[in-house]
Amino acid sequence: MKDILTAPFITEMRETTANMYRQGWDERNGGNISYLLEEKEVAEYLDLNKVIRTIPTGFDASGLIGKIFIVTGTGKYFKNVDKDPETNLGIVRIAKDGTTAELLWGYKDGGKFTSEFPAHMMSHMARLKVDPEHRVVMHSHPTYTIAMNTVCSTDEKEFTHKLWQSNTECIVVFPDGVGVLPCMVCGTNEIGEATAEKMKKFRLVVWTNHGIYGTGKTMDEAFGLIETVEKTAQIYMLSLGHVVNVIPDEILKGLADLWGLTPLEGVLKV
Ligand code: 13P
Ligand code: ZN
Q1: All CATH 3.40.225.10 domain ranges in the chain, comma separated
Q2: Catalytic choice (102, 116, 156, 230)
Q3: How many helices (H) does the chain have, and how many strands (E)?
Q4: 13 three-class SS
Q5: Per-residue model confidence as pLDDT tens digits over 178-202
Q6: pLDDT per residue over 137-173, tens digit each?
Q7: 1-114, what's its fold?
Q8: Pocket of ligand 1 from Cβ distances under 6 Å
Q9: Is 116 annotated as catalytic?
Q10: pTM of the entire predicted model
Q11: Rounded Cα distance, 189 and 197, in Å
Q12: Vertex 107: Cα angle to 131 and 27 (nearest 5)
């Protein structure tokens, strides 16, 4: 059996959490990541018959039975993952009953997965139906994105339009737009279900006054989506009250046509 600390998926989790912390997106224990792993890649490092303990999830994840995820721990700080992955991360498998997680590694201090586990698992189920290669759900608290929530409506077409109008990269990176949920109580099955409903259509979902979810086939894709929204939200907030120029809808359509992309319907007026 190989040393798990040499596994590429552990390295990715260490690097990504450190990077997100450096961006200023994940204060204290803010943010969480779950990453769907291949059973055979995990089997190189862990005995899959050895369950350390079981943890009830409190919701039905039948669509993910047998699937293995590496997940950040609840209350754990992103800035600490790199120096102590075994305490701050865990590897769990969804058990046959669909409502229990089997801990295979990690959460060494007796901890458990993020309080946003419902939103993560329900989002994985939704995204896997759209894209069988989907792997990553990433949640974060980027400053300018949350600031934008205080001055923008929660209408997702309007929100998407404001981002597209502020930076030409946006329509190319997320032509499918950004889903927006109103302010809700987080850490619940309800916000999980609402997020997963949005994930049927969007790879990005904003939680008003809280943060954002990005998803993708890879860590880079999920990170890059959030990074593009956050940079653009910064541009939006820096120029608020002084705007004399936004990207016209004709140009946005031109960009979509150039890249062969279908923009979210009902946003552009051309
Ligand atoms: P956890 O520490 O439980 O992951 O919660 C952080 C967070 O971002 C809640 O939305
Ligand atoms: Zn959060």
Answers
A1: 1-114, 116-264
A2: 116
A3: 11, 9
A4: helix
A5: 999 999 999 999 999 999 999 999 9
A6: 999 999 999 999 999 999 999 999 999 999 999 999 9
A7: L-fuculose-1-phosphate Aldolase (3.40.225)
A8: 29-32, 72, 74-75, 114-116, 139, 186
A9: yes
A10: 0.98
A11: 12
A12: 75
